[in-house]
Amino acid sequence: MLGCVLALAPATWMHTVADSRVRTVADVPARDVAVVFGAGLRSGAPAPYLAHRLDAAAELYRAGRVRVVLVTGDNSREEYDEPDAMRTYLVGRGVPDGRIVSDFAGFDTWDSCVRARKIFGVDRAVLVTQGFHVRRAVALCRAAGVESYGVGVAEPHDLTWYYGGIREMFAAGKAAVDAALRPDPRFLGPVETGVARALLPAGGSG
Length: 206
Prior knowledge:
With 206 residues, the chain is α/β, with parallel strands linked by helices. It is 45% helix and 17% strand. The strands form two sheets. Strands 1-8-7-2-5-6 form a six-stranded parallel sheet, sandwiched between helices. The longest helix has 23 residues, at 159-181. The chain is globular, with a radius of gyration of 16 Å. The N and C termini lie far apart (51 Å).
């Protein structure tokens, strides 16, 4: 029984912290910045789950609920560049290039949240991801100092969705450890002004 309680504690923590912060595109509070987490590429373009996150971010931008989109993902090797693929996709859906900022070292959710705060100066944001991931994203970004609401993108309950849900059960433990210990991300680097420039009236360069 004790083992079951301990195993469920991280998930309980995530739901307690994040449940009231999960909204839809239609009712999420307006914020300057949306953060979109990487979710994989297919032949160099966003895989379907990532494309759906980007569709939601573009909708938030068109509705005036966010002014800038921070795309955060993996560019650890030359032939794999999530942020640039995400930028190209958003531009193709009407988000101006100058309103998109790229984080090339968002290797996991905690790294993306910490870098959003420490590197890009984001202290309030709308987080865009699938429903099975959104509570972990909100809980971790709040632990990293980003006051967050999450938009959970709905998906059909296919094999990928079930895999994502099972993966979250195991990821909850790491999330709780990260929130408690607050380790530095794999790569921190210098402060960047991309978000601040993109928020200027004319839009900065991404």
